[in-house]
UniProtKB/TrEMBL annotation:
This is non-specific serine/threonine protein kinase. It comes from Sphaerulina musiva (strain SO2202). Residues 93-115, 165-178 have a biased composition (Basic and acidic residues). It comes from the Eukaryota. Its EC number is 2.7.11.1.
Length: 647
């Protein structure tokens, strides 16, 4: 710990190695007989040693005026004594005895490659290999003594004691001079690495088990066994799937991974100095994400992994460099497919062009379990038209959000169809629904839904802190300004803002001043589960847009085709229930329903008999529970489901 600064007083400094052996001028020191002065040989004179010492220091090309090495660290002497990696220096016995007698700590020196004391800003061998721990330096030449510190500062160092329970092993980390090594936090440890890029991504690196890695190197490693395919685009990142190229019997589809590749904003120190180039670089950064925002999303992924129905987070990596060939090829294939289907091309820059990304571009790569295809794509190809498919997908989504509300005060705040993934255990969605148990209330198909992408989400972390994105910030203003004539989803953002501030989806929040919004005493940091309902309304609205209505089908003969009639009858009943739920979630009838969260909607469904308790708490499999078994439902209730179909 650094002592208080003393202004107006100069410390006594001895820079001649021979003078250090002379008696101290302090009146508290005992008198020491004077030593007989001996005349040094001419070769040992200071004037003769100076050129040799200077020549030894110049082991690298001379730097320009005011130029500092990127890894150079200039710290006070006090800080050098408390470094994460032990650095000790052996000195002469007379010097150590002198320091102990006067209660003055021997400062630890930073040395260069030639074992000479490094000057300010000079590159040292500690910087060359920071992972080798402490090194011992033995001086064969003259010792340069640094200014001694006052006894008051030395006493203050003794206050550095370990916090927490006493540990006998702590003595191993204490030095002879009384200093104690302090363990750094993960963020401080990451920021301690070399270069401005590690410091810029320190928060993300603290969440990862991997160092900053070259993009091309990592891509070459995974390309040996996996094929890279682009499958979707998020607001601030592209989603790629890794598919195993060789058939392995023990490797199933759920073992495959998807990667969300997010371009990160560069460090301020890495931006060009020229005004024009700097403005162009800042313009390019508008579509990128800051490392802090990605770190928030990663923390949300880690928090929600244990809750059923949420994506299984696996890993996070920080990469650097231009996109490699494997990802460039996947990008081109995606654009070609979009063009063939007459859809909008990628809104991300073409990675082939050098102007798109710099050589030092930083990336965050989030690895998750492959949860299947996103619901938006399934709706586009017409794979979700059956009322049984829609029923299972909708209520599984509602149950997942409700469990998130109860377990972590979770709000998704961006739950469009692209952020819901669907996986079928069978080979196709159609085969998943060939056998229908009309006595069930959920699980008519073998479909499984997963909630993904928590970029705008909010939840309570295990340490009770709140992870969220402040959507009232000026940078998020465009989120509420989308044209709903092109996509109904843009209205949902405004509905969400209305229910958060005034419990009214159609409230004209855009006409309210900042002071008027502050007067509501509500913020995006607080828990407002009614925001989940407006997104659930959108999910049901989109699903019902392309449903194959059972009521429009020809009614099978009840006597001649009893099984077909039973299926049609069940479909017709589910259709009417879905229409009732649509009325409950209608933004125009919000105040009359009394439902204010996904949890309320689930409770209402159980009370109406649309769902059973077993459907809410989960079952080990869809085949274990049958209402036609004759036993009481609660007697065969399975244990609460921890993770449906996920490890």
């Amino acid at each position: 710990m650094r002592g208080e600064k003393t202004y107006g007083k100069r410390s006594r400094a001895v820079f001649d190695a021979r003078v250090v052996c002379l008696p101290s001028s302090s009146p508290e020191q005992p008198a020491t007989p004077l030593l007989k002065a001996e005349k040094l040989p001419p070769v040992a004179r200071r004037s003769d040693l100076q050129p040799q010492r200077v020549a030894g220091l110049r082991t690298s090309p001379r730097r320009a005026l005011a130029e500092h090495h990127v890894n150079a660290v200039v710290l006070p002497v006090e800080v050098l004594e408390i470094e994460h990696q032990t650095r000790t220096m052996k000195t002469g016995g007379r010097l150590d005895a002198r320091a102990k007698a006067e209660d003055v700590a021997v400062p630890k020196q930073r040395t260069d490659a030639s074992k000479k004391v490094a000057s300010r800003g000079r590159h040292t061998f500690f910087d060359d290999d920071a992972g080798q721990g402490g090194r011992e330096c033995s001086h064969t030449g003259p010792v340069i003594v640094q200014p001694r510190r006052s006894p008051r500062k030395t006493k203050q160092k003794a206050k550095l004691v370990p916090t927490g329970p006493h540990d006998d092993s702590a003595s191993d980390h204490a030095h002879d001079d009384g200093t104690i090594e302090c363990k750094l936090s993960p963020v401080e440890e990451a920021s301690k690495q070399e270069g401005p890029y590690q410091e810029h991504c320190a928060e993300l690196l603290s969440l990862s088990t991997h160092p900053l890695t070259d993009f091309a190197t990592w891509s070459a490693e995974i390309s040996e066994h996996f094929a890279v395919t682009k499958i979707a685009e998020a607001s601030f990142g592209e989603v790629y799937r890794l598919s195993l190229m060789e058939d392995i019997s023990d490797f199933c589809s759920t073992d495959e991974s998807v990667f969300k590749v997010i371009p990160l904003t560069p460090a301020v120190s890495a931006l060009p100095v020229d005004k024009r180039k700097r403005a162009a670089a800042l313009k390019k950064c508008e579509g990128m994400t800051s490392p802090h925002d990605v770190a928030t999303e990663v923390k949300l992924l880690q928090r929600m992994t244990s809750i059923p129905g949420f994506t299984n987070f696996r890993d996070i990596r920080i990469l650097q460099g231009r996109p490699p060939p494997a990802f460039i090829g996947a990008y081109k294939a995606w654009n070609a497919s979009q063009k063939a289907n007459k859809k909008e091309l990628s809104h991300f820059p073409d990675p082939v062009k050098k102007s798109s990304y710099n050589e030092d571009q930083l990336w965050a790569v989030i690895e998750m379990q492959d949860a299947g295809s996103d619901l938006e794509r399934l709706v586009e190809v017409g794979s979700c038209t059956s009322v049984f498919d829609i029923w299972d997908i909708f209520w599984q989504t509602v149950l997942s959000i409700a469990k998130g509300e109860e377990g972590a005060e979770f709000e998704h705040r961006d739950l469009h169809l692209g952020n819901i993934c669907v996986r079928a255990q069978s080979t196709s969605l159609d085969e998943a629904g060939t056998t229908i148990n009309t006595k069930q209330k959920l699980g008519f198909t073998n479909l499984e839904t997963t909630i993904i992408d928590y970029t705008l989400s909010r939840c309570v972390m295990p340490d009770t802190s709140i992870a969220y994105t402040d959507l009232s910030a000026p940078a998020q203003a465009a989120l509420f300004e989308g044209d709903s004539t092109e996509e109904y989803q843009y209205d949902i953002y405004r509905y969400m803002r209305g229910v958060l501030y005034l419990d009214e989806p159609l409230a004209p929040i855009h006409e309210m001043t900042h002071d008027a919004l502050a007067a509501t005493e509500r913020s995006w940091e607080q828990f407002h589960p009614q925001t989940n309902l407006v997104w659930i309304h959108l999910v049901l609205y989109k699903l019902l847009e392309q449903i194959d209505w059972p009521s429009a089908k020809k009614v099978p003969q009840k006597k001649r085709k009893a099984a077909e009639f039973a299926v049609w009858k069940r479909e017709n009943d589910l259709e009417h229930v879905l229409l009732q739920v649509q009325d409950l979630l209608d933004p125009n009838a919000w105040c009359g329903s009394g439902i204010r969260s996904a949890t309320d909607l689930v409770a209402f469904a159980v009370g109406e008999g649309w769902l059973d308790v077993e459907d809410v708490v989960g079952r080990e499999s869809f085949d274990e529970y049958h209402f036609v078994s004759g036993e009481h439902p609660l007697s065969s209730r399975a244990e609460p489901e921890q993770s449906r179909g996920r490890p």
